[in-house]
Specification:
The protein is mostly helical. It is built from ten helices and no strands. Helix 6 runs parallel beside helix 10 and helix 7 crosses helix 10.
Amino acid sequence: MEQEKISQCQIEVKKIYDQFDASHDWQHIERVMKNAKTILAFETADAFIVELAVLLHDVSDPKYKKTGENLERDILERLQLTDTQQQQIQHTIASVSFKGGNGKPATSTEAKIVQDADRLDAIGAIGIARAFAFGGAKGRKLYDWNEKARTEMTEQQYREAQTSSVTHFHEKLLLLKDQMTTETGKQMAEERHEFMLSFLKQLQTETDGNK
């Protein structure tokens, strides 16, 4: 029964993610699921809740959500889950988003796993690719070495500012390694973080960013 609900959910959400840009498409969900299952192997958690939360975590993302739309709620209702299961999934999803440093802390093991799995896909080589894919979709500059990264901002300021993609590294991506909550997530983040630092150093060299 649980696998049937997961399959049903996959069918519904894939249609949604196929409409998003490459930074939050179906491949993103597949990678986050892989990360989550890797972490799950070392944690005691409800895999059913984790998998559904991964599948649904971006369907109502404010970056893509239309006015009056609540796809997350609508799909959860169609899956005919128990009230407890719906609440667990919603709680897990609520803690995933970074929100400019204003996101909700992950308190359950399921939430920690999904949060780490999603943030791992925001760093490293794939994180670099996604940052520039999203920046390109929004018409942002690749880099602006004169732009100062913000250390404090509201969620609204974080979402509305048209900062360059490289500035986004300093405002979010380079902060994620130290925010991982599971031991496996922390270990996986190390190499990805170092790769981003190497990339930024090379980018500065190629663009005379040090001058």
